[in-house]
Amino acid sequence: RLNSPNDIVVKADGSIYFTDPPYGVKPEQRELTFQGVYRIASEGKLTLLVDDFDKPNGLAFSPDEKALYIADTARKHVRAFDVRPDGALANGRVFAELKSDKPGAPDGMKVDEVGRLFVTGPGGTWVFDAGGRHLGTIVTPEVPANCAFGGPDRRTLFITARTSVYRVRVKTPGMKVF
């Protein structure tokens, strides 16, 4: 059983990682008492990896796939986990805080080829280096929901919001998607 699967990322080995917050499910209708992060192995086995999020949301791998970043919308931060060779997660820690007086919370995210993390959140899309340092925010007129790199050179960042899709040219290509 699941709550309301939300965001997904695929690893190079074919395994799928996804978040399972309670969005759209009334509290009295929930079948689970937790919100988790899951993995579906390439052969189809489902495994619960983490169950201590308030509202897990967007997720993305580092370029070498040795780290998995996961947004917790309720706590307004992004956590990083080491990805073990068997696909399990270890050493969970707060990677970045997205606290602001502007509306919004961490939601979707993507990583560029050098490991910068682009996280939609309060006031726009926040950009962090691989160490978790906030480099700046790409401001949008609406609260953003998700983002993706596109175009023939993967140097266009598309940002979705309630009524629009925005695009911004960036210097470094986004990670290649499998």
Give structural notes.
The protein is mostly beta strands and 178 residues long. It has one domain: TolB, C-terminal domain (Neuraminidase). It is built from no helices and 15 strands. It has a 4-stranded antiparallel sheet, with no helix packed on it. The chain has a 4-stranded antiparallel sheet with strand order 5-6-7-8, with no helix packed on it. A hairpin with a 2-residue loop joins strand 10 (117-121) and strand 11 (124-128). The chain is globular and about 40 Å long. The mean pLDDT is 95.
List the helices and strands and how they pair.
Layout: E1 8-10, E2 16-20, E3 35-40, E4 46-53, E5 56-61, E6 67-72, E7 77-83, E8 89-97, E9 109-111, E10 117-121, E11 124-128, E12 134-139, E13 144-150, E14 156-161, E15 165-169
Antiparallel strand pairs: 1-2, 2-3, 3-4, 5-6, 6-7, 7-8, 9-10, 10-11, 11-12, 13-14, 14-15
Largest β sheet strand count, sense and barrel closure: 4 strands, antiparallel
Helix content: under 10%
- How far apart are the first and last residues' alpha carbons, in Å? 27 Å
Structural class based on helices, strands and sheet pairing: mainly beta
CATH architecture: 6 Propeller
In percent terms, what proportion of residues is strand?
over 45%
Low-confidence stretches: none
- Give the overall pLDDT as a whole number: 95
Number of domains: 1
What is the strand tally? 15
Q: Count the helices. How many? A: 0
Radius of gyration: 16 Å
CATH topology: Neuraminidase
> What letter string, H or E per element, gives the SSE order?
EEEEEEEEEEEEEEE
The CATH homology group name? TolB, C-terminal domain
- State the CATH class: Mainly Beta
C-alpha geometry: globular
Strand order of the largest sheet: 1-2-3-4
